[in-house]
Every structure is written in C-alpha cells, then in structure tokens.
Amino acid sequence: MSTKLMWKRASSLAAAACAAFTLAQSRPAEACGVNGCDGGVPGPMPVNQDGENVLFVLNPGEVEVHIQISIDPDTNAQKFAWLVPIAQIPEFEVGSQPLFDALLQASVPQYGLSQSFEQCGDDSISGGLTSPNGGTDGGFDSGSTGEATTGATGGDPVLLKTTAGAFEIVVLQDKTVAPIKQWLIDNDFLWIDGADDTFQQYLDEGQVIVALKLAGGADEGDVHPIVLRYPSDENCFPLRLTRFSSVQDMDIRVFLLASGRAAPTNYRHVLVNPLKIDWFNFASNYKDVITKAVDELEADGLAFVTEYAGATSITAPFAFNVYNPNWNEAPFVGLPPEQVINYLNDQGLTNCFNSSFCFYNHPLIEGLLGEYLPVPDGLTPEEFYANLGVYSEQIDDMKWGDGSAFSAALVDRIIAPGLHAQDLLDTYPYLTRMYTVISPNEMIADPTFHINPDLDDVDNVRIAGNYNLCDGNSVVTLPDGREIFVPDGGPWPDFIGEMWWAEEISQVALKGKPMHLVNNTAAINTKIEAWNKSHGWPRSDAATGTAGSTGDDDAGCGCTSDQPQNGAALLGVAGLGLLALRRRRR
Questions:
Q1: Segment (H or E) for 304
Q2: N or C: which terminus of the chain carries fewer CB neighbours within 10 A?
Q3: Are 87 and 18 in contact (CB under 8 A)?
Q4: Closest residue by Cα to residue 462 from 481, 434, 475, 437
C-alpha cells in the first residue's frame, strides 16, 4: 500500500526549514502519473503516474505544497500512514485531485513524427548510399530500438491533533525518537522500520513530525491530496525518509507555479541527448533515457530534467472540472435525500440517469454519497443513486440527517479546494514541470527549487519531421533542426560508440544562464555528421544536381506532405507509445 510523495539526494542535509515527506507502506501504489494518464493529446496516450507528484506554489516567505496521495485499492486503506518531518506546525487543507489531473494532462511530454514524402520520378533517385547489409564504414550500426512550539521534554509528544477531509492528523515533537515512535505505534499509526536514525536527524534539526492516516470508516475512495502551508523561504522536497518505503527507479514529478521558470537549487539540471530517444516509437524508451541521463557523471543521480516550462494557461483545456461556479452547498441543507442526485446533476457533479447509469464528475463525490447516502444491501450504486425516489424507503435517514453534514463536507472536500485550485491557475502565470527517476540508495538529501527569470521556455510537444525518401530510407529532422539519416526508414538507429545519455549537465543559479558542467553538443554533432556522411547524406551535387535537402523548396526533389494537423501524429511518453509507425513507401 502506498501514497505519493518523496524525493532525491544532494550533497548535504537540507536546512531546518525543509520538510521531508515520507510514507509508511507495505508496497508501492499503482496510480495514474510521469509516463501515462496524462490524456488529452490525440491518440491513446496513457500517462504513468506511478511515483510521486508534488506541486509547489512559490511565494516569498511562505511554502505551500500540494501532495498527491493514492492508496493501492488491493490493500487495507486503514493501514495507510504518512509521516512528514517539517520545520514547524503547518496549516492543513484538502487538496484538489482535478488540479493534479489538469497539470499532468496538460504538460505531459509528447513525442511524434510529422511525415513528408519525396516526389519520386522514373529515375527513383536514391536518398543515401547504404551498403547492402545496412552496415557502414563510419563506426555505426543500424540496430533495433529498443506555528511550532519548542518541543516536548519527555512527556506527551503531541503538539496538535486535527483533521483535514478524510484524514486524521497529529503533530509530534520530542528530543528523541523513542517517545514519538511509541506514541504512533500505540495509536495505530505505522512506524517505518529502520528509520529511527533518520528521524532523529530531523528532530536534531528542530523539526516536528506530522503523522497522517485515514479517519475511521474512510477508504481509498475518500483519498485526496493534502495541502501544507507554513512560513519559510525555502521550499523543499524531502527524500531522506523515502528510501525506507520506496522502490527502485521511482518516478518523481515536481510542478511549480510561480511568476517565472523554476529550477533545482541544489540538484543538477540535465538536457537529454535526443539521439537516445526512440523517435519512431514515440519515445517508448523515455524513462530509460531519463534514468541513465540523470545518472551520468556530474549529475550523479542528483538531477532533474524539465519537461515543460511555460504559460500556466496550457492547463485551460484540462481544468474544466477543477472548479465550477455552479457548485453550491446551500441547497442540500434541509433537502429531502431523494432529491440529492437531481441537484448534483444540475450542478454538474454527477450524471445519473436512465435508471442504471451514474457518472461522477469529481473523484470525491461518490465517496461523499457513500458516507451520507449509503447504498442499501442488494443494490448497486448505479441502481440506487439513479433511482433515489424509487428506493426512498431504504434511505438511511440517520446518515443523511437534514443534509447539513453533507453540505459542509461538500464545501470542505470539493468546493473550497476547487476554488483555491482555480485561483492558483489564474494567479500564477508560469508553470514548470520537472521529472527525475531515483532509487532508495540515492535518497540521501532533499532537493530545493528557485525561480530563475533568465531561463528559456521548454515546450512539452516535441515533433520531429520524417522525410521519406524514394529508396525506402528516410531523414529525420529533430525539433532542434539536426538531421539524422535513417536506413530503410527505421528502426531508430543504435549509434554504436555514441555513449552520452545527457547532452548537457548544468548548475542553475538564481539569475543568468545555466553553468555547464558537461556539454556534449559538439561531440554529438560530430557523430551525427559522420553517421550521415557514411550513408551519403546530404546527397552530393554529382548524385542529384544539388545538395540534399528535406525542405519543400528542394530544387532537385520536391516533396508531397502528409503532415498531420495540430499534432495529430502525437503519441506517447516514457515507454508508453506502443503503436508501430506505418510508413509510406514508394
């Protein structure tokens, strides 16, 4: 069982203001997150959300962090626990799952190919000089792709007990771990075996321990993100405790809403080598490439890549259910329970019709209905909620009461979080999405982030042009303009001897351009040139009457373009593009 949260290593322990989030869990959760349920692009593109998704809102003097939590439905939700070392007692609020959905879907990296075709005449001009066996003499082979107190003094360690939505929360502090550990075990919170020394480090830094678990009666359908807010000038994603409950190669995704582009402060920043991306299979090897790139020398596992950096307005098409001004709790106070679905339908929170159909337009609405209008034995939720009038005699009037509790819960879990989420999207003009892959042995410190106003935007849509030649070969023009000759039109070449997974590894300061620690661009360009030349690309004047070109203005060979409109060829990210590319041959 698990939830979402944690982070990676740096060279030293983070400052006392830095919170460290960790989860006590029996096994990793399976959820939709960096490679997969990010829908919203043309085609069936799943987005894998296994891992941890966190949103920071960057404000001077205040930390606001939203943590997406998911619990494996195959485990006992009542055994879920989450432990958070943090600088001081924060404010707790219910977060918005639709906000995370919109962020994930809008900014997911998208890789695709825009197809064009050489106009072939009777002479069937060849696009390259490839040896019969597909080999070359250039050292390459074409292969398959692949408000805090000063602390307790040995007495009761509890500083605060509260609730937020479906969760019970307690904040504890002491000079040593033992009283906190014993209190948690005695009160049915899970302890993380082997983490005593790491917890002691946080206590020595003056931090408090936040423990969170589901309230009695709640289940995985009630789980929602949590918002923590506290005064500090340092935002931090903690990792030191994560290694006790993590898995190998965990996906970590950080979203940052701010006035400009964000970057890692104490971690490196990596630009991956585009030659390592399998462009013909929609970057199906994406996670593998990122994993190897952030592990390169000088990155050493302490690095992020930027998947998107630009206007927050990119989320607009995906934020339709983040907040709806039609949502209103007032009508439910004093409302006969058999009328509840009619009002929820009117507000767009449900679509329950036709006696047996119910669709829930917010991930928490079904859980609220189950709590205050529980389904009678022998009926399915669809049968009951779509026909409350028919089953009015079976409604639990004690649970519903006068509707006041339902109304308050609607505000607490859906309306207020949605309104705040929408306000964030409207207030902060810039969104940065960063990603890394990390394993437990690498989780030795906690990354922090800052705004650098001098950094360029990063588009999440990466479309290469594939120019299909008459002889069955093709030339791919990468989004940065570099051309790659592809024998036989695919698969994507395996560049033997080209070993760099990262094109650039940088340290990003508060201002100015990144400082390159590693820059492999020149070496990569030399490899590309040698590869293309060994295959006769660009074409020589003697062979074609003009230098080779993939442009539409090529005097020797015009092209007819079958390019998709509005990115219709997009598919896939991080190992999820499974469709084979069909190429047109002449």
A1: strand 303-311
A2: C
A3: yes
A4: 481
Asked if residue 277 lies in contact with residue 34, where contact means CB atoms within 8 angstroms, the answer is: no
pLDDT of residue 249: 82
At residue 92, φ and ψ (nearest 5 deg) are -120, 135
555, 546 contact by CB (below 8 A) = yes
Distance CA 505, CA 296 (A): 9
Amino acid, single-letter form, for residue 130 = T
Which amino acid is residue 179, in one-letter code? P
pLDDT of residue 219: 66
Q: At what angle do helices 416-427 and 97-107 cross, to 10 degrees?
A: 30
Judge contact between 6 and 239, C-beta under 8 A: yes
- Report in angstroms the alpha-carbon separations of 175 from 154, 200, 409, 515: 7, 8, 37, 41
Confidence of residue 498 (pLDDT cuts 50, 70, 90): confident
Cβ-proximal residues to 76 (8 Å cutoff; 6+ apart), any chain: 1
Calpha distance 96→66 (Å, rounded): 8
Residue 107, amino acid: S
Asked if residue 195 lies in contact with residue 238, where contact means CB atoms within 8 angstroms, the answer is no
Give the C-alpha separation, 392 to 371, whole Å.
17
Calpha distance 548→556 (Å, rounded) = 8
